[in-house]
Amino acid sequence: MQESSFFTPAELVQLSALYRKLLRLSGDTLQKDDCRKLKAHFIRIIPQGGLPRNAFGMNPIIRDMQTAVIVAEEIGMRRASILGIMLHESVKCGLFPLEAVEQEYGRDVAGIIRGLVRINELYAKSPTIESENFRNLLLSFAEDMRVILIMIADRVNLMRQIKDSPNGQARLQVANEANCLYAPIAHKLGLYKLKSELEDLWLKYTQHDMYYHIKEKLNATKAARDRYIDNFIAPIRRRLEEAGLRFHIKGRTKSIHSIYQKMKKQGCPFEGVYDLFAIRVILDSDYEKEKQECWQVYSIVTDMYLPNPKRLRDWLSVPKSNGYESLHITVMGPEGKWVEVQIRTERMDEIAEKGLAAHWRYKGVKGESGLDEWLNSIRETLESADSDIEAMDQFKLDLYKDEVFVFTPRGDLYKLPQGATVLDFAFTIHTNLGCHCVGARVNGRNAQLRQPLNSGDQVEITTAATQTPKRDWLNFVTTSKARTKIRQALKEMAARQTQFAKEDLERKFKNRKIDYDEAVLMRLIRKSGFKTVTDFYQSIADGATEMNDVIDRYQEMLRRENETNAEVAYRSAEAFSIHPEGEAQKEAKDDVLVIDRNLKGIDFSLARCCNPIYGDEVFGFVTISGGIKIHRCDCPNAPGMRSRFPYRIVRARWAGKSQGRQYPITLRIVGHDDIGIVTNITSIINKENNILLRSISIDSHDGLFSGMLTVMVDDTSKLESLVKKIRTVKGVKQVSRG
User: By C-alpha distance, which of 176, 175, 173, 170 is closest to 159?
Assistant: First the structure.
C-alpha cells in the first residue's frame, strides 16, 4: 500500500500521537467535518507521490502536524491557522487548487495558505536572508499576521528536529536564518519563549563546544544555585504573605544564549557572569490593582535587599512596543551576589510568554497606556468586517517604524509610529474624537490635521460637532486604527445618505400621486447604467441625478409598458367571457367574471400591483373608467379596496386551461453573496421549459445580496416549481413573489 511506503513504522506511531495531541489542543475549534475531510484528502493525494521530503528527510505531513501543535499549544492559534498549516504543502505542490480550499474550508484558510505559499516563493528569489530589508519584505508578503506566527512556529519545529541530521550545511543555513530572521521577529512580537529556544538552538548548531561548555557549567552549579534561590526567596515569601498578596515565585536561569552574549560582551568566563538567574514574582491581581500591587512588592523586596538604582527597568508605566509589561530590579542578595527580581501579574506573564496571542485573549482589558496600541490596532483591523489588505499592510509596516511619545494636556502618554499626524493622535485616543477633529494645539500653537508629531509634543485636540470624516483624510493618516475607523465612518455615512435619498424619492412619488412600482424602478435603474441600487441612490444624494428627472423617466417607461400590455389585453379580450347566468347563480348571487372564455364588450386588464397569473385566486375591481382590473386575492391593495369600495368588487375565477399565454412575475431573492450564485440561479431558469428571464437586478451589501428577477411563466404550478428549485441553490435564503 502506498501509505505504508510514505510513512515509516516510527512515523506511523508518531503520527498517531501527534493526531491525538492536536485534537486535544484544538478539537473545540475545528468544525465537525474538518478531520474527516483532511484524512480523505491525504488518502487521495499520498498515492500520487507529489509530497516530497525536505533536505533533512522529514515527512511533510509529520512536520506540518508538529508545527500545528506548536501554534495551538505555544501561541493559542485556532482552526484557520491549523488547517492552513496542514494543507499549504498540498497547494504548493499543485495537488489541491486554492479555489477548492476556499470552497471546502473557507476564505480565511485559503488566505493563510496563499501567504505561506508566497513566502516560500520569496525564499526561492532572495538570497539575502539576514538583512533587515528581507524582514520587512517578509512582512509585506504576508496578507495576514498569522502567517508570520506560523512561519516562526515552523522554524522552531525545524530547529528541534534537525539536531541529528547528517546534512550539516543545510542545518547551518537553517540555524543562521533562525537567529538572524525569525528570532528578532519573535522578539518584536513578544514571543520570548520561542525566541529564546531559537537562539539556544542556533548556538548549539553553530558553536557546539561553547553551548555544551555553558550547559555543563550550569548543570554543575544547579544544586548550589537552587539552594541559594531558596534562601533568597524564603524571607520575601513570608513578607508577601503577611501583606495579604496572592502570588507565586519561581526562579529562572538565564538562557544559554543570553549567558553566552554576557560572556562575549564582558569578555569574561562563565564564572564572571554574576546574574545567572532571575527571581520572578507573579501576582494574582485584579486589573485595576496591578500597578499598585507590583510597586508594593518592589517596596518589600528593596526594604530587604539593597537595590542597584542603575538597574531599575520600569515597563509598567511605559510598556515595551510589543506589549511587554514588567518591573525589573537588581538587588544585592546574600553572599554579596547580585540577583535580578522581575515583578509582574499573571496577565503580564502570559503576555510575556505568548505575546500576540495573549493580547487577543485579554482584548477586553483597556489600559490608558498599558496595552500596546500597535497590537490593539492588529486586533481591531482583523476583527473589523471592513478590513482590507491596504490596512493590513499598514499595521505590518508599523512593526518596524520608530516610535514617538506624545502627551495629552493631562500628561497621559501615548505611543505612535514615526510620522503620525494630529489626526492619528485623535483617533488613537477615541474614535469619536477623531471623527470630529478639526485641528489641535501642539505645544500651545495651532496645528492642522495633517501636521506630523514629534516625541515630547503636548497635543490638545480641537473638535466641532459639524465635522465629519473626509475621504482625503486617508491620504495622510499613518496608523491602521485611523484608516480603519475613517473607512467605517465613510461607509456608514454613505449608507445613511442612500437611505435618505430613497425615502426622499418615495416621498416625491407620493406627493405627485404616482403609484410606486419597485420592479419598474429597478428596470429604470439598470437601463440608466447604474451597477447597483446603492450607486443609484448615492448619485441622487450627491446631486448628480435629479429626482424629478427620475420620476419623469419612470412615468415614460411605465406608459410604454402599459401600452404594450394594453395591446396584449386587447388581442386576448375575445378569449374572455361572462360565465352563463345560470351557472353563475349556482355559485353565488353576485356577478362572477370567468376568465378564459369569450368576453365581449367588457374592458379589463391584469393589475400591475400584484401581477396575477393563471391559477391564482383572483377578483375583479371596477375602475372609475368602467373597466375591470383583475387582482390577486392576496394583493397588498386588496384589503383597502374591499373596505373602501366593496360595491366595486366583482367575483372572478380562472376557467378552462392555460392556453400558453405567459405572465410577467417578479421574484425577490435574498442570500449570501457567494461566487457564482447569480449564475446558478439564471442557469436554473434557462433550463426550465416555457419560462423566460425578462430582467434581473442585483444589489450586494455586507456579504448579502438582494435581487429582483422578472420571469415570464404560464401558471402558478410552474411558478411554484421554479421557486422550489431556486431555494435549493447554495446561499439562497429567501425567495418571495413580488
Answer: 175
Side chain identity at 126, as an amino acid letter? S
Angle, CA of 308, 314 and 319, to the nearest 5°: 155
Place of cell 488518502: 43
Cell 485611523: give the residue.
482
CB 228, CB 334: distance < 8 Å: yes
Same domain, 160 and 281: no
pLDDT exceeds cutoff 50 at 583: no
| 279 membership: H or E segment, kind and range | strand 277-283
d(CA 416, CA 451): 14
- In this structure, the number of other CB atoms found within 10 A of the CB of residue 346 comes to 15
- With a pLDDT cut of 70, the percent of the chain lying above it is 81
Same domain membership, residue 276 and residue 188:
no
Where residue 274 falls among pLDDT bands split at 50, 70, 90?
low
Distance between CA 724 and CA 144 in Å, rounded? 40
Question: pLDDT at residue 224 above 70?
Answer: yes
Q: Tell me: do 259 and 323 sit in the same domain.
A: yes
Give the pLDDT confidence of 510-536 residue by residue, as tens digits: 787 777 777 777 878 877 777 777 778
Order across the sheet with 663-672: list the strands. Answer: 692-701, 704-713, 663-672, 732-737
- pLDDT bucket at 564, cuts 50 / 70 / 90: low
Contact 603, 595 (CB under 8 A): no
State the total domains in the chain: 5
352, 385: one domain: no
What is the residue range of 263's domain? 216-361
pLDDT of residue 94 exceeding 80: yes
Helix (H, G, I), strand (E, B) or coil at 623: coil
Would you state the cell numbers that stand for residue 103, as one nine-digit string? 470552497
Taking the model in full, what pTM does it have?
0.49
Does 112 share its domain with 22?
yes
Is residue 252 one of the residues assigned to a domain? Answer: yes
433 in a structural domain:
yes
DSSP string, 51-91: ----TT---HHHHHHHHHHHIIIII---HHHHHHHHHHHHH
- Is 194 within 8 Å of 153 (Cβ atoms)? yes
Compute, in degrees rounded to 10, the torsion defined by CA atoms 489, 490, 492, 493: 110
- Locate 615 and state its grid cell: 391559477
Q: Mean pLDDT across the stretch 390-417?
A: 61
Q: Does residue 7 form part of some domain?
A: yes
Task: Quickly tell me which residue has 412615468 as its cell.
Answer: 555
- Percent helix, strand, coil in the chain, to 5, is 55, 15, 30
**8 Å CB contact between 136 and 397:** yes
Residue 340, class by beta-carbon neighbours within 10 Å (0-12 exposed, 13-18 middle, 19+ buried)? buried
Q: Give the list of residues 6+ apart from residue 130 with CB closer than 8 angstroms, or none.
A: 176, 177, 180, 181
Question: What's 384's domain CATH number?
Answer: 3.10.20.30
* CA–CA separation, 460 and 407 (whole Å): 9
Which pLDDT tens digit goes with each residue over 244-269?
Answer: 999 999 887 788 988 898 888 878 88
**Residue 662: predicted pLDDT:** 79
Boundary-marking domain end, from 490, 521, 545: 490
| CB 389 within 8 Å of CB 397 | no
Q: Interhelix angle for 9-26 vs 79-92, to 10°?
A: 140
Q: Measured between alpha carbons, how far apart are the two ends of the chain, in Å?
A: 60
* Whether residue 133 has pLDDT greater than 60: no
305 and 407 both lie in a single domain? no
Q: Tell me whether residue 557 is in a domain.
A: no
Task: Assign residue 703 a region (left: φ > 0; alpha: ψ between -120 and 50; beta: otherwise).
Answer: left
Q: Which of 206, 239, 270 is the last residue of a domain?
A: 206
**Cell numbers for 565:** 400590455
Distance CA 561, CA 567 (A): 10
